[in-house]
Amino acid sequence: MQLDRVLILDGGLSNALEDRGLDLSSELWTARLLLDDPGQIAAVHRDYYLAGADVAPTASYQASVPSLVRAGLSQREAERVIVASVELALGVRDEMAASSGRPLLVAASVGPYGAVLADGSEYRGRYGVSATTLRDFHGPRLELLASAGPDLLAVETIPDLDEAEVLVALLDDLGLPAWFSYSVSGDATRAAQPLREAYGALADSTTIVAAGVNCSAPRDVGAAVCTAVEVTGRPAVAYPNLGETWDSRTNTWSGDASFDVTSAAGWIDDGAMLVGGCCRVGPADIASLAGVLGGR
Hints:
The chain has 11 helices and 12 strands. The protein is of the alpha/beta class and 296 residues long. The strands form 3 sheets. An 8-stranded parallel beta sheet has the order 1-12-9-8-5-4-3-2. Strand 10 and strand 11 (252-254) form a beta hairpin. The radius of gyration is 17 Å and the shape is globular.
């Protein structure tokens, strides 16, 4: 997959669903709606495409067979839900591409192991599990997502170099194009490994088409983009959160918003080809971003 133009990503799925009055307090988070009300997820995908997004990540970030089985599904039913997350987005993609004439993409979202723990571990890493456990968790889910035919994979919010090393090997075995983004704090991963080392783990991958940062403070994006491009030799992906801080004990955001769509031009100048927003960034923000970037 060749990135020959800047692509605009969507914003946060959870906040857009909550703005529709939906309760996401269960352990499954947004994935619960794949069971209860998939039409709401489709509506959010549609809203982001209408706002100017070129790519829609699926609602599979926190979906896994083990977590869905814990929620009462059989293994086969759980596997079907994961596949359906991609099929749902593809249906909206085809509908919107036909009406707009724009080439649109679907990226199957692959969240970190910590996301399914629903305890904020994706912002810390260092899960205390073996590489074998991580392979056994990620491998089957990657295969299910790939089987549904997304345009690429969005491996996102990875906090830990150790998990990244497992994922890169699985991605290269799978062979589907992917972007890979860490959650970062300053010049390190959330697990406190230097970003140069973290991006170095991606440099020899045969399938990663872009590397970068997501669900991190906007102030940390620029340096991470530069490091990712320098170390991997690939375009960058950049989609920070709104700038607030997540408290996993109270499940609330606090602090001031600092997401500024005009910053994206600088990220692009430094090598980003995929730009958008993550948690708390909504369709209106993506519309503003699309307006700022214009014909890039």
